[in-house]
């Protein structure tokens, strides 16, 4: 994913994400691992995965043509 695609994707995510979910997604798009993101936010890796999966499901339902 190039920088423009990443920015457009983040813009779409911002419209459906909670602030914490958006921050997690932004870090993942910057290349941080699930473990690194979890450590930065004081969460377990399992919780980070769950939040990101939830965000992905909502995004796909609202913007199926984007994928």
Describe the protein:
The chain has 67 residues and is mainly alpha-helical. It has one domain (3-66). It contains four helices and no strands. The chain has helices at 3-16, 19-29, 34-41, 45-62. α1 (3-16) runs antiparallel to α2 and α3 packs across α4 (45-62).
| Oligomeric grouping of the chains | single chain
Given the structure, what is the number of helices?
4
Strand count, sense and closure of the main sheet?
none
Relative strand content: under 5%
Unreliable sequence segments: none
Helical percentage: over 70%
Number of domains: 1
Average pLDDT confidence is 87
How many E-type strands?
0
What Rg do the Cα atoms give?
12 Å
N-to-C terminal Cα separation, in Å?
A: 12 Å
Any descriptors?
67 residues; mainly alpha; 0% strand; globular
């Amino acid at each position: 994913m190039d920088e423009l695609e990443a920015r457009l994707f983040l813009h779409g995510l911002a419209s459906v994400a909670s602030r914490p979910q958006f921050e997690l997604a932004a870090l993942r798009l910057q290349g941080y691992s699930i473990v690194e993101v979890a450590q930065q936010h004081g969460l377990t890796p399992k919780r980070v995965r769950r939040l990101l999966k939830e965000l992905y499901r909502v995004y796909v339902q609202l913007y199926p043509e984007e994928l």
